[in-house]
Design a protein that fits this description.
Blueprint: H1 11-20, E1 26-31, H2 36-41, E2 45-54, H3 82-91, H4 101-109, H5 115-124, H6 126-133, E3 155-164, E4 167-171, E5 179-183, H7 189-202, E6 212-218, H8 220-240, H9 250-284, H10 288-300, H11 304-317
Antiparallel strand pairs: 1-6, 2-3, 2-6, 3-4, 4-5
Length: about 325
Amino acid sequence: MGDWTTIESDPGVFTELIESFGTKGVQVEEIYSLDKETLESVAPVYGLIFLFKWSQDHKDRREVDHSNQNVFFASQVVNNACATQALLSILLNRPEVELGEELTSFKQFTKEFPPDMKGLAISNCESIRNAHNSFSRPEPFAMEDSKSSKASQDVYHFISYVPIDGQLWELDGLKAGPINLGACTLDDWMDKVCPVIMKRIEQYSQNEIRFNLLALIKNKMDVYKSQMADLEAQKAALAGDGDAMQVDDPKAVQVDQEIESLKQQIAVEEEKRARWRDENIRRKHNYIPFLFNFLKILAEKKQLKSLIEKAQQLQRSS
């Protein structure tokens, strides 16, 4: 069983991670508010991932529910795998998602496994682990205990919320099983989950503000392309109706306005995707050899010592 690194809770990271599994038609967006307008802006939402500071002292006495065999639930059996497990908890529980060959085979292979064996299967799946670890930060030195968290360090954990078979489920790999949060539909499950998340936030002290909420949603470019096709069809239909299609026809003006608005949304999404690609390239690139060589050159030119002394002076004066 190989090591798993911690990865950044970032929508660009998670989206590329999903795509590396071979899954298509979905992306991840960060949610900054639980108000109705914000949630509607990212619909349809397949599931939510909540990141919070984990505390061993927090006791959760809610009962787990293993009654629904259609719920894919995996125990977390290795450190640092919770980000990928939270993603898989949504992907493997929403039949609308086009999983791709690899995850489809994995889901079928582990279908009858108990939670601990599902967790072991994830941990031992080389392709999933390699995709996860591709976002690890290069380390200049091999630390003896670099993979484990020290007692003084904050530990963060990911859990998923997803509707399955008319019930809202909380999937936390550190629990003994899934937690049934009650009945819901695909239309109202977001209304049901918001109070649950707010209650969890309120359990922490008022000084704790380090939470993160990510939504697994339908790929925005696919949504926009479908909407554009509908608008172009409406425009063509109006053009075919000679009597209805006039320069100042309200319907034609409205369609043209909606097309222009959609073009702007597509441009914004394309710009965001390009930024994600650049940021992920920087995350994965190993700058350490360059830095070592740069310091070596400075030392050879006898400039390193003076720069260090100057930096120390600035630090003391600040």
